[in-house]
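Section 4.2 – Deliverable D4.2 (structural model, holo form)

The reporting period included a commitment to supply a predicted holo structure for the target in complex with adenosine-5'-triphosphate. Inputs used:
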Amino acid sequence: MGKGKLFVLSGPSGVGKGTVLDKLLSDFKDVQYSVSATTRKPRPGEKDGVDYFFLSREKFFKMVENNEFIEWAEVHNNYYGTPKIFVDKCLAEGKDVILEIDIQGARQVKKLYPDAIFIFLVPPSLNELKRRLNHRGSEDEKNMKIRLNNAEDELKEVKNYDYKVVNDRLDDAVEKLKSIIIAEKCKIREEDCQ
Ligand SMILES: Nc1ncnc2c1ncn2[C@@H]1O[C@H](COP(=O)(O)OP(=O)(O)OP(=O)(O)O)[C@@H](O)[C@H]1O
Ligand SMILES: Nc1nc2c(ncn2[C@@H]2O[C@H](COP(=O)(O)O)[C@@H](O)[C@H]2O)c(=O)[nH]1
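Output (structure tokens):
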């Protein structure tokens, strides 16, 4: 059994990472979603252990201290991290894993897992990004500003990724993401060449 592949999905807040992944994972069971930990408060409808592991700052930094994250970062004034145990267990069992993390986290992952595949989701325009964030209604005015300000810098990071997918029509973006995963899984591995 070969090692599983690690996929990393990033993109500015509100571009649709969660929406695209929900749709992809609902009918494509080959990839495991890594649930992140965060110090952000849950939004209405979000479930602990499903959307995130919602932690106090104290608990989050205990995990940092114990080296329990692959990567962690402060994003839009909250802390987020990828628990190591789930990812490493899946990869060792030959299962593929996808992380939905920000650009700072992706840089850390690149150092630790140089073979990971990095995918960047971009909005059709900044105006549409703003409209989506507004429409989601999850952020107050202050947080909207923070997220939109960060978006401009985040978009410059696309150069460090392997693939860019524009999330214009949702179904198209899901199909493209699925195609990338399938193509990467068909790549010739070292073990195929012996
Ligand atoms: N292709 C699309 N066309 C129109 N609306 C979309 C599309 N994709 C996502 N949306 C909408 O945009 C909003 C933001 O989507 P979502 O929450 O998935 O973004 P996100 O990138 O995961 O954000 P965050 O990084 O803040 O978690 C949601 O209201 C969602 O329904
Ligand atoms: N570095 C990490 N970034 C993460 C992780 N999980 C999520 N995120 C990023 O946070 C923002 C905001 O998310 P929200 O749920 O508060 O809207 C999002 O854009 C993700 O990219 C993580 O484990 N590490």
